[in-house]
C-alpha cells in the first residue's frame, strides 16, 4: 500500500490506514480527564498513564518502573 500524499509504502493495510491519519488534522480520540485529543487510540491509551500514574514497565534489576517501554530500555543501559 502506497500513500498517495508522500509515497510511503506500507506492507499491512492497517499500518497504511494509521499512516494516512498523519496527513489530516483529524484527532478523534479525546481524553476525558484533560480534553487533549489524539490521532490514534493507542496514543490516547498511553496518555492515560499521565493521569493514572500507571507504570507498567518495571526494571528487573531495581525497583524503578516506567510509563513507556523505551524509558525502561534507556534505563536498562544504566545497569550495564
TrEMBL record:
Record's subcellular location: Nucleus
Coiled coil: none
Gene3D superfamilies tied to this protein: Classic Zinc Finger
TM regions (residue ranges): none
Gene Ontology molecular-function annotations: DNA-binding transcription factor activity, RNA polymerase II-specific; RNA polymerase II cis-regulatory region sequence-specific DNA binding; zinc ion binding
Keywords: Metal-binding, Nucleus, Repeat, Transcription, Transcription regulation, Zinc, Zinc-finger
SUPFAM superfamilies documented for this protein: beta-beta-alpha zinc fingers (SSF57667)
Domain C2H2-type: 1-28, 29-56, 57-80
Primary localisation category: nucleus
Alphabetized InterPro entries for the sequence: Znf_C2H2_sf, Znf_C2H2_type
Family according to the record: Belongs to the krueppel C2H2-type zinc-finger protein family.
Function field: May be involved in transcriptional regulation.
Full protein name: ZN768 protein
Taxonomic source organism: Centropus unirufus
Amino acid at each position: 500500500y502506497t500513500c498517495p500524499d508522500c509515497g510511503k509504502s506500507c506492507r499491512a493495510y492497517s499500518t497504511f490506514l494509521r499512516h494516512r491519519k498523519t496527513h489530516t488534522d483529524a484527532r478523534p480520540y479525546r481524553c476525558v480527564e484533560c480534553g487533549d485529543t489524539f490521532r490514534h487510540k493507542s496514543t490516547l491509551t498511553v496518555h492515560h498513564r499521565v493521569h493514572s500514574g500507571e507504570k507498567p514497565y518495571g526494571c528487573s534489576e531495581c525497583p524503578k518502573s516506567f510509563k513507556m517501554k523505551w524509558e525502561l530500555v534507556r534505563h536498562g543501559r544504566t545497569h550495564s
